[in-house]
Amino acid sequence: MAATLGFVRRRRCPALGALLQSRTWTISSLPLRYASDAGKRKIEKVLIANRGEIACRVMHTAKKMGVQSVAVYSEADRNSMHVSLADEAYLIGPAASQQSYLAMDRIMHVAKSTGAQAIHPGYGFLSENTEFAELCKKENIIFIGPPSSAIRDMGIKSTSKAIMSAAGVPIIEGYHGEDQSDQHLMEQAQKIGYPVMIKAVRGGGGKGMRIARSEEEFLDQLESARREARKSFNDDVMLIEKFVDNPRHVEVQVFGDQHGNAVYLFERDCSVQRRHQKIIEEAPGPGISPEVRRKLGEAAVRAAKAVNYVGAGTVEFIMDSKQNFYFMEMNTRLQVEHPVTEMITGTDLVEWQLRVAAGEEIPMNQDEITLNGHAFEARIYAEDPDNNFMPGAGPLLHLSTPAADSYTRIETGVRQGDEVSVHYDPMIAKLVVWAKDRQAALTKLRYCLHQYNIVGLSTNIDFLLSLTRHPAFEAGDVHTSFIPQHYNELFPPKKGISNEWLCQAALGLILKEQAFTNEFNLHWEDRFSPFASGSGRRINVSHTRNLTLLDGDNQVDLKINYNHDGSFNMQVQDKVVKVSGELTSDGGVTFIKCCVDGAVFKSKLIIIDNTIHLFSVEGNVQLGIPVPKYLSEVSTSGSQGGAVAPMTGTIEKVFVKVGDKVEAGDPLMVMNAMKMEHTIRAPKAGTIKKVHFKEGVQASRYAPLVEFEEDSE
């Protein structure tokens, strides 16, 4: 079906200048060296075939270089940030990425019709698509990435390992053959020895990857990996390799040009992961010796030269406890975590991409690239860490961040009021910090995480704080099993909210009510109105007031006495404390300064949807405001129990039918949402009464999926 292309005129964003700052990004500081003008091509306009934060990131550098940017967008992204930042923006299709951001013909049509000389694919989507790179070449448009041959060779893991072995790059034991029968793959797994990693030969980002720790679970894990690989890459060919327990994931940033030059820009440690996806990255790798650092870099350059690599790429290694390293894969694109490399080298890798794509030599040789300081990147996701990091979606009702400066970067594609869409990756932003050493950088990261405040959906910010405070992480003792190994410390039992927080919340609610009353008085002339008093003396309100707040499902009752001096005596859990304070405003955000029995606290105060949110450097809490029964919705659910959709997604596989008996924890369905597979399991034992969805059908969040009757005693 032909695409409907719509045009959006340029809309300037005043926040652009502060959006993606780096310490030393200056065009004039980069010396230009190229062998001749023969291979040079001018890039005056670039189309960014992507969305979200990476599209905004590329536009920032394009603007700095005086290059015009063209955005493409789906119907779901019509009002998105990357559309606002671009010089031109064009609608290319519906929300589904297959009909928009993966629609090569539509993107190419926009590039040609707008006169763009180059296309930057960002990461994901078409960034490692051989067919798209070849299409760009055919249409005489510069593909800002490596040659299609390098994408093809490195995109198939079995081929890449053979090339790396021939180039003298260490590889790990495994099977990368053509016989894909279940029996043969199982035999190879037995030969290698459990545990083994089952991997899709194409793609990345944790898709199509499963660990089989025994023969009994091998086939189930194989089928799950194949299913996800077919969905993500349209290719379910698998490889099997030895799984190294508690390895480090260390990767090296490389860069090549069209003149045969290649350099490395040191390593990044990306070991701490969930669902085989990175959650926090740092550069350089903690505890890596200068000798190993040099060997890593040289091995990565050999890997790049083996495939005549051009542009930005990443060579990923598995590293054991003795700092032996083995080639894992090569990502033939700009990585999500590239900012930490930029921070420690003082470079702009997107600028390098544009220059090299235009035919210039790499702006710096190996001796000129120096390592300075330490950087962290924390990925802020819409997800629920307490629910196995279940991805989420929804509106950003409130969003405030630390200020961007020379040592802090906020890389994002959303603003307050925007929605994290169910159709795409749930990453909200990347918080990047730099300091002179690792400890100072870690301290700054924690400080900035406290200042990253979001209301409207669940995020992983509190988990990131817990992670960065863990003694093992602080010591640099990181590996890919870090989260499961330290699970109990990272997910401690929930504690009740302290009296100090409860008093702040109660005072904030009272002062907000008083502020509302004062505002009301400005527009109401009847001074005898019962609403025209902020002292607590309203209808049914005396000097003593009972207030109820909700700490999750727990009800907390407070008895509040109003004092003549404007303070309050609050009785909380049989303890009476004196509370006073005031509200202040800064940049449109409300803060509460509260004194509880002489101890002073200052917190950001946000009240939305009957919920009080408090944020401070001490942490954050949220407390519900009970809705009166006569206003609350009456539940009409008569279901005898079942399973509901945890989010909006597509049903990939159904394991049960009417009449089947299940036990608690048995798999019922597999749902694909937020680019990941999620297994829906039975919440309790019973007999299947009704299955509401078939395979291939989309289910909305909270929709009943399976209904069952409890077995009789």
What does this structure look like?
The chain has 713 residues and is an alpha+beta fold. It contains 18 helices and 42 strands. Strand 8 (196-200) and strand 9 (209-212) form a beta hairpin. Mean pLDDT is 87; it is low at 1-36, 528-542 and 630-640.
**Average predicted local confidence, pLDDT:** 87
Q: How is the largest sheet built, in terms of strand order?
A: 27-28-29-30-31-32-33-34
Tell me the distance between the termini.
Answer: 57 Å
Beta-strand percentage range: 25-35%
Structural class: alpha+beta
Q: Radius of gyration from the CA trace?
A: 28 Å
Q: What form results from the Cα inertia axes? A: globular
Largest sheet, if any? 8 strands, antiparallel
| Annotation field: number of helices | 18
**Count of strand segments:** 42
Uncertain runs? 1-36, 528-542, 630-640
Number of domains: 6
Instruction: Give the name of the CATH architecture of the largest domain.
Output: 3-Layer(aba) Sandwich
Q: How much helical structure, as a percent, in the residues?
A: 25-40%
Assign the CATH class of the largest domain: Alpha Beta
**CATH topology heading of the largest domain:** Rossmann fold
Summarize the structure.
The protein is α+β, with helices and mostly antiparallel strands.
Task: Label this structure with key terms.
713 residues, Dna Ligase, domain 1, 6 domains, 6-stranded mixed sheet, 18 helices, globular
